Amino acid sequence: MPADLIIVQRNLVTAEVFDAMTYFQGMGKPVAVDLDDAYPLLPWSNPAHAFWIENSSKRPIDPIKMLEDGLRQSNGLIAPNRNLLSDWKHVTKGYYLPNYARREWWSDLPDRKTLKNAHGMEGRTVIGWGGSVSHYDSWWGSGLMKAATEISRRHPEVLWLCCGNDKRIYDQLPVSWGSKAWQPGVPPQDWPKVVKHFDIGVAPLFGPYDQRRSWIKGLEYLLGSVPWIGAEGEPYADISSLGVLIPQTQESWEEALENMLSRLVQEQERSEYKVSIAQQWFIENQKETYERVYKEIISNFQARQVWLQGVNYINWQSDTRVVAATRN
Amino acid sequence: MKKKIVVSGGDDLLSYIKFLKDDYDIITLMPEVAKALEDADIPNRAFNTFITDQIQAKSSNDVAGVLIQVLTQIPQAVERLHPAIRENFKQIVPGFIMGQGQSLALLINALESANPDGAVVHNDVEPVTRTLALWCKARGKPCVHVPHAIYLDYGRGSVGSDIHDVVTATHLTVSGPFQKQWYMERGFPESNIAMTGVPRFDRLITLPINRERACTVLKLDYRKPTVVYFSSWSQQTNLMGFNDEVQQKYLTFLDAVRGMEDIDVIIKCHPRGGNVKWHTEEAKNRGVRCIVTDQYNDLLSQVMSAGISYGPSNVVISSTVLGKPLGVMCGFENDNEIIKIPTSVDGVRKSLTAMFAMGKPDYSRFLSKYLGVVDGQAAQRVAYFIKQVIQ
Predict the structure, then answer these.
(1) Phi first, then psi: what are they for A269, rounded to 5°?
(2) Average pLDDT over every residue of B87-114
(3) Contact flag B292-A314 (C-beta cutoff 8 Å)
(4) pLDDT (tens digit, 9 = 90+) per residue, B85-100?
(5) What is the C-alpha to C-alpha distance for residues B199 and B263, in angstroms, rounded to an integer?
(6) What is the ipTM of this complex?
(7) B residues 280-309 near A, CB within 8 Å?
């Protein structure tokens, strides 16, 4: 088999995956795990909470425990957030690898005015956001929900555009029906066109779970030339100079949004210049980054395979291998 | 025309000889040293190239002359011995004289031919190096002794009772104030001593530490602390060395760490002890999970969280240079920085727990006493002193 490195995407919860890991490692191939979510910290509001935290599937071994055992057996954890790596450093070595965007998806996009006009948003200032089902707490806990009420009261031209798979955020956004719109989830290649509708992008975060997210929202706003406001903390730390990062309180959100609305034209002009900076983070431009990380994983794996001459191991048992769920 | 120096070898040689290669024609006494210098692109001439057929013949004749004299005097000499061994002695001595004598005669005759301007030795007590130093003394040439070890504040007995008390060289480099004082007490003139530090410790100052990587290479768990136990061999250079303390302390250590699953254990044997097998067998028989090796000092330096030495050893110095907690099971009574570990199972365990919990110890006074200035430039100072002495 020509592969030098096997990467498993988080599904370390079945015997088959463990068996596969063992097989490939035995064949001299390192197996790394890719995670982008803080499963042990999943909030109750997240639908996945039941599986990971409550073990709703009634697995013989707790899924989080299985995940930990799998990470321990693996040859490293790849994650787009340093807090996430730190969480698991007691079981495995971490390798930081941010999320990147695909150039072709962000090329040849219509301009903002054309897109807004096509969808009846002409004359509106669109404050946009998109996300999956794991962001419910982000909106409520960050203070943005309540800030939205005040902003809409003072700025009737604002249209809150909520996109994605969690309609609760749209349904519960405390603004008038005419001040918000819902955009269902779209395939990833179509998402850039949705982002291009935004006059302002928001990226709220709340609590330790959110501090383990990637920077992708900020990056997408930059690529879409959307001025954006996000939360302070690890996720957007590396691009903090390219956006507005604030503490997560209602007051901070109100102030930041007011400021941005008051000089929106200038902010949008500045965002045009930031696009070229953000384009370095197209995945096509990050070949060396991937090479460096993967080579390091492989090199560290190979170092473990070296048995030095003249080093005698006495009464030395090898590490206990993980017992998969169905082997008991 | 460059001056010529003969060098005997030693672990530190490569580190300081590179500062001398442009000033001297270097003659290496031992073939393996010649090769090591060649590999390091340091030009040198092997000593045996001075041993011509004529010198071989002359050396044999010289030794034969000595042997004849000895044989004529043996009957009277052996009368002092016990009757049971007289005959045996008569048979052994001629062979010994021919073998050892031939080597030394060759050495002296070749030195006469090479006529170096001076010599640098790593010890001046072994037959070959002592002969070299004596030849230099007889010919009024300087001989610099660069010791291979640091003498430690541990009672070796009264002055004159240890082989290391013998100084044949004309000049000395010493590691620090303690060693300088040690030699002065044994009558060596202060004016011929240079306090240079020890070149081999220069590397430790700049050694890059990557514990996690080193643990990976050694198959250790980097999350666990690692204790390195430095064992030795019975150094019988004086009567005080004739005991089994080294063995007993090691066995006590093994009994103490057996079953301690929250640490990793490495047994580091002396590189010239020749007793790795014994250490391995004892650890195996006592059911202790550990690594046993006499190599890879750099790796061990990186993984070590705390060290225990059976007693006085230069590893105590290297560990303190690295800033690692270090305990000894005997010795260093006058050095409070070094933790004294009782030779008992309980004593070892308690000491280990304390050492793992302590932060980086302050060894500045200790290092000043034994190493003088610790700045990574000992090799340059040794080379500078040699240039001052051998002109």
Answers:
(1) -65, -45
(2) 86
(3) yes
(4) 888 888 888 888 888 8
(5) 33
(6) 0.77
(7) 280, 283-284, 287-296
